[in-house]
Design goal:
The protein has 544 residues and is of the alpha/beta class. The chain is built from 14 helices and 18 strands.
Length: 544
C-alpha cells in the first residue's frame, strides 16, 4: 500500500526528515518557465482544486505552472500558534457584502497563499452522499449534477489515501472505511459520544485528514488545537504539503505572489491564450495552451467577470448570466454547553466526532434536505466572540472566559439551497490592483432558516443529554461553493461534467465554484476529487 501510494503521490516523503518543511531543494531548484514559452496549462490558484490539478498534470509530463496571489508559505517560519497572529492566512482584500443575510468573508471561508484556505481549514473531510448529486429530481430542490456519486467514488478513495484520512468505518451515504484508524477523542468528543448515546443518535469518530501516527516524514498530531491557524507541525494535510511538493518534484512551477488579473481570449478563434498577472506590481503575460481557474467561489467569478472582451462584454463565459450565480454557504450555528467537569475542548482537531443522521430529507419534517453535526472547539478569541454574541460584557464576560475549560461546543453544517440571486457581481469600488472588487449578495430562504433552527435544537438536545447545565448558540456561516456551477448544457451551467467551460473550449474551472449543490459535508474532499477527475479526463482528452 505504501509503495503504491508513494508511486502516485510522494509528498509525505518529500518533507525534510524532521517533517518541518518541504525539502528546500524543491523550491530552490524549481523549474521556471519563461512568459514567452507556451506552457501546456496555466492554473490560477493553488488551493484544493488547483494544487491537485497541478500535481496530476505534472506527473503526466505536462508543462504546468500555477499562480497564487499570496506567498509560498513556510510553516516553520510563517505560522504561529496564535489566533490573532494568523490573520495573514486569510484573504482580507476589499470585498463588499449585501443582501438580507450578508455573509462575513475572511477567516472562515477564504485563504491567501499556496495551499489556499486548506492551510487553515479544520481538517475534516467527509464525502458527499449519493443523494447530493440529484437533489432536484430526488427532493424537488437545488439542482442535479451532470455526474453521479459513482463518478467521484474512486477519486474520493484516492485522495483519502493521499492525505491520508483517519476515522471509523462510515455508515452514512455510501458506507466506506478509511485508511487510518480513528484518533483518540478529547473531552469534547467524549461529551458528543455520551450525549449521542443518551439521545439515541448514532455518532462516529472522524474523518480527519491527519494521519494517526507518522506518515512518511509527516509527524504525528500533537493535539494542540491550532488546526485553524495553520498546522505548524505539518501533521494536518493541506495541499501545501500533500500535493504541491510532489508537483514540484515532477517539474511543475508555482508562481507565488502573482495576482492574475484577466484571461486573454483570441478574438478570432475564441480560445484562451494565457493569463495577465501582476508580479511585484509589474504587469506580465504568461502564454498557455490551456487555462484553468481555481480561485474559489468569490475570486473565480470576479476574475471571469473582469475578463471582458468584444466576444464577452459581460464577462468571460457569461453568455447566459450564470457567472457568479447560485453561490452557496452552509448555515453553521454553534451551540456550547457548560459542564461541571473540565472539558478542555481545544485538545484535539476541532471536528473529531460527528453524526450524519439528519443529512437526508425526512418527509416528516417541515423542511427539505438536512444537516450534519460535528464537534468544534473555538479558541479563546473566538470563544469570547461567542459569549459576547449572547450579550455578556464586562465582569460577566470575564466570568465566562475564566470558565472556558468547562465548556463543550458542537457545530452544525446546514445545507442551504442554491438560489440564483445569491451571487457575486462587480462593485464600483477598486482594489489595490485597480480591479473592481467583488460584491457578494446573500439572502436565506425559509427552508434555510428552518434547517438552522432544527440543527440548533438537535445540538441542544445532545448537550443536555450529556449533562450540560447551560447552553448558548451563535449563528454563523461556513464554507463557500458555487458561482460557476456544472450543468448539463450552457443554459444550466458554466462548465460541463469535466469542468470545461461551455463557452471557451480550452478553459477549465476546477475549484468549489463548480459544485451545483453543497450537501451538509465540508467541501474540501469533494473539491479535490472533482479536480482529480478533471485532470484524468484532461490527460486522456487533452485537445478540446
Amino acid at each position: 500500500m505504501t509503495s503504491a501510494l508513494r508511486d502516485r503521490n510522494g509528498s509525505a516523503w518529500l518533507l525534510t526528515p524532521d517533517g518541518s518543511r518541504a525539502e528546500p531543494r524543491l523550491t530552490a531548484q524549481m523549474r521556471r518557465f519563461d512568459d514567452t514559452h507556451e506552457v501546456d496549462i496555466a492554473i490560477v490558484g493553488c488551493g484544493a482544486g488547483g494544487s491537485v490539478l497541478l500535481q496530476r498534470l505534472a506527473r503526466a509530463g505536462w508543462d504546468a505552472v500555477a499562480f497564487d496571489a499570496g506567498p509560498f508559505w513556510d510553516p516553520a517560519k510563517d505560522w504561529v500558534s496564535d489566533e490573532a497572529g494568523s490573520h495573514h492566512l486569510y484573504w482580507t482584500d476589499q470585498r463588499q457584502i449585501g443582501g438580507t443575510d450578508p455573509v462575513p468573508l475572511g477567516s472562515n471561508n477564504s485563504g491567501r497563499g499556496v495551499g489556499g484556505s486548506m492551510v487553515h481549514y479544520a481538517g475534516y473531510v467527509p464525502r458527499f452522499h449519493p443523494s447530493d448529486f440529484h437533489t432536484l429530481s430526488g427532493d424537488g430542490v437545488g439542482a442535479d449534477w451532470p455526474i453521479d456519486y459513482a463518478d467521484l467514488a474512486p477519486y474520493y478513495a484516492d485522495i483519502e489515501a493521499e492525505l491520508p484520512v483517519a476515522g471509523e468505518d462510515w455508515p452514512w451515504g455510501d458506507p466506506h472505511s478509511y485508511p487510518h484508524r480513528p484518533h483518540p477523542v478529547s473531552g469534547n468528543g467524549e461529551t458528543f459520544l455520551r450525549g449521542a448515546l443518551a439521545a439515541g443518535i448514532q455518532a462516529k469518530v472522524g474523518p480527519v485528514a491527519i494521519a494517526n501516527g507518522r506518515f512518511g516524514h509527516r509527524p504525528h498530531c500533537i493535539y494542540r488545537g491550532f488546526c485553524l491557524q495553520g498546522c505548524k507541525v505539518n501533521a494536518k494535510a493541506s495541499p501545501l504539503i500533500t500535493h504541491i511538493p510532489d508537483a514540484l518534484a515532477h517539474g511543475a512551477e508555482v508562481r507565488a505572489d502573482s495576482m492574475v488579473t484577466s484571461i486573454e481570449i483570441d478574438g478570432r478563434t475564441g480560445r484562451a491564450t494565457g493569463v495577465h498577472y501582476l508580479e511585484d506590481g509589474r504587469p506580465r503575460f504568461q502564454r498557455a495552451r490551456i487555462v484553468a481557474v481555481a480561485g474559489y467561489s468569490i475570486e473565480t467569478p470576479r476574475l471571469l467577470l473582469n475578463s471582458t472582451s468584444a466576444r464577452f462584454p459581460d464577462g468571460l463565459c457569461n453568455d447566459f448570466d450564470l457567472v457568479g450565480r447560485y453561490l452557496m454557504v452552509q448555515g453553521a450555528p454553534q451551540t456550547a454547553g457548560r459542564f461541571e467537569s473540565e472539558i478542555r475542548m481545544w485538545k484535539a482537531p476541532p471536528p473529531e466526532v460527528s453524526t450524519e443522521e439528519f443529512y437526508e430529507t425526512d418527509p416528516s419534517k417541515p423542511y427539505t434536505r438536512g444537516f450534519s453535526i460535528q464537534t468544534v472547539s473555538p479558541l479563546p478569541i473566538t470563544w469570547a466572540e461567542h459569549v459576547m454574541a449572547q450579550g455578556h460584557w464586562g465582569a460577566d464576560l470575564r466570568r465566562y472566559m475564566s470558565d472556558y475549560v468547562h465548556w463543550a461546543c458542537f457545530g452544525a453544517l446546514c445545507e442551504f439551497l442554491p438560489l440564483p440571486d445569491n451571487r457575486v457581481t462587480l462593485a464600483d469600488e477598486k482594489d489595490g490592483y485597480g480591479l473592481p472588487v467583488a460584491h457578494f449578495s446573500y439572502t436565506q430562504c425559509d427552508n434555510d432558516r428552518a434547517l438552522a433552527k432544527a440543527a440548533q435544537a438537535t445540538m441542544e438536545q445532545l448537550l443536555e443529554a450529556a449533562g450540560a447545565s447551560e447552553t448558548m448558540t451563535v449563528q454563523r456561516y461556513a464554507h463557500l461553493v458555487g458561482g460557476a456551477r456544472m450543468g448539463a448544457d450552457e443554459t444550466q451551467g458554466v462548465v460541463d461534467a469535466d469542468c470545461r467551460t461551455f463557452a471557451v473550449p480550452n478553459l477549465l474551472i476546477t475549484d468549489g465554484s463548480v459544485l451545483p449543490t453543497q450537501g451538509s459535508a465540508n467541501p474540501a474532499l469533494t473539491i479535490m476529487a472533482v479536480a482529480a477527475r478533471a485532470a484524468e479526463r484532461l490527460i486522456h482528452r487533452p485537445e478540446p
